[in-house]
Specification:
This protein is α+β, with helices and mostly antiparallel strands. The chain is built from 6 helices and 6 strands. The relative contact order is 0.17. Keywords: Isomerase.
Length: 179
């Protein structure tokens, strides 16, 4: 009897370990590890993306902020970027999230009026966009998840990259020097 209970307990532990590390969907309930449901169909030709059409095919200065809902400094920067967007109407601003859970990202964006976030409409191109921002080949693997990072793009090329949080004075100075 004791041997039978230990066997059942062992099987139960192994099953729970697998569910926790792999994840399982039971109807609308998800147990265990989440997969990246935003990047379901990777596309690598960035020229086909809305991001390219809206932000890279222009001569305007473009400021793209890489962020995540779980990153407190990222969330704290959002109001500053909104202010800058109003102060510099000739500069294009956008955000790109590295979040892996589209539901959580959608909820956050609905609750917080933020910059135009291009993540969901460019989900299939997110890796290609990040590779462009980092000047890597379109199909490169992404190894780091550092946020916040702000990229300054002029004439379709990244001309400056700042890792970490920035204050309004610093970003205003950078915008002024690049315009």
């Amino acid at each position: 009897m004791k041997k039978k209970l230990l066997t059942i307990f062992g099987i139960l532990l192994v099953t729970l370990f697998i569910i926790y590390n792999v994840g399982i969907d039971i109807g609308s309930l998800h147990l265990g590890k989440r997969t990246d449901d935003i990047e379901v169909n990777n596309q690598y030709d960035i020229r086909s993306s809305d991001f390219y059409k809206q932000f890279l095919s222009t001569d305007q200065l473009v400021v793209v902020n890489l962020w995540a809902t779980w990153c407190q400094p990222c969330v704290e920067e959002m109001p500053m970027f909104l202010e800058l967007q109003k102060e510099f109407p000739d500069v294009r601003f956008a955000t790109l999230s590295i979040d892996k859970d589209s539901g959580k990202l959608k909820d956050f964006l609905m609750k917080n009026k933020s910059l135009p976030d291009v993540t969901l409409q460019n989900a299939a191109y997110r890796k290609a966009i990040r590779n462009f921002l980092e000047n890597r080949s379109e199909k490169s693997l992404i190894y780091t998840e550092i946020v916040p990072i702000t990229y300054f793009i002029k004439s379709g090329k990244v001309v400056k990259k700042i890792e970490g949080s920035m204050d309004k004075k610093k970003i205003t100075s950078i915008i002024g020097s690049l315009k």
